[in-house]
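**Protein of interest**
===
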Amino acid sequence: MPTGTTADERRLPVAVLPIGSHEQHGPHLPLITDTLVAGAVAALVAEAYPVRRLPPLPLSCSHEHAAFPGTVSLSATTLAAIVTDVAASLHRDGVTTLVLVNGHGGNYVLGNVVQEASLGPLPMALFPGEVDWYRARAVAGMETSMLTDMHAGELETSILLHTHPHLVRPPRPDHVADERPHLLSRGMAAYTESGVIGRPSLASAEKGRAVLESLVRSFATYLPRGS
């Protein structure tokens, strides 16, 4: 999380806003996993590029996890309004592009927010995109597919083993549920008792490091020309 004072701020044209969640991630990962992931990506991006890093939003649209203790959600309307308000404030402060670093796959509304923002006055982008994740997984040698590795699996566990290993608890139970036709209406509990859908047993800190390094390289394509 940024800890500087106003004296440390520069009026950079590109800002990055990490968006996490507060939801179950099985018995081995913390409720703030998505916030930690988004924050780690944003921090590394800010080290590599001239961008203004904002503190993460720790709550978002986690309704599919409601059956599990600890989950807290915002409505899609509220999340969209928060992002829109942040964008308006940044625009007044001279920012010309806002990149949303999304750590939670259930934040579908962010795609619409970015789509509408293309009409101005402050264009937005949504990062990482699907192609960025595919590339990062391949570079890291992930053994599970994106379909299988849906939640609290190889990817997320690997990233936290690299960035916050003290927060990863044993055991790391595997559970595969590739067929999830009613996920939006019935939630995660219809497909997993543990909250895991994936194979966290395959995770490693080295895979997590490689994923993050790949994502940082991919971010270059999200910068406006001339940045």
Remarks:
- Strands lie at 14-19, 52-53, 97-102, 124-127.
- The chain is about 35% helix and 10% strand.
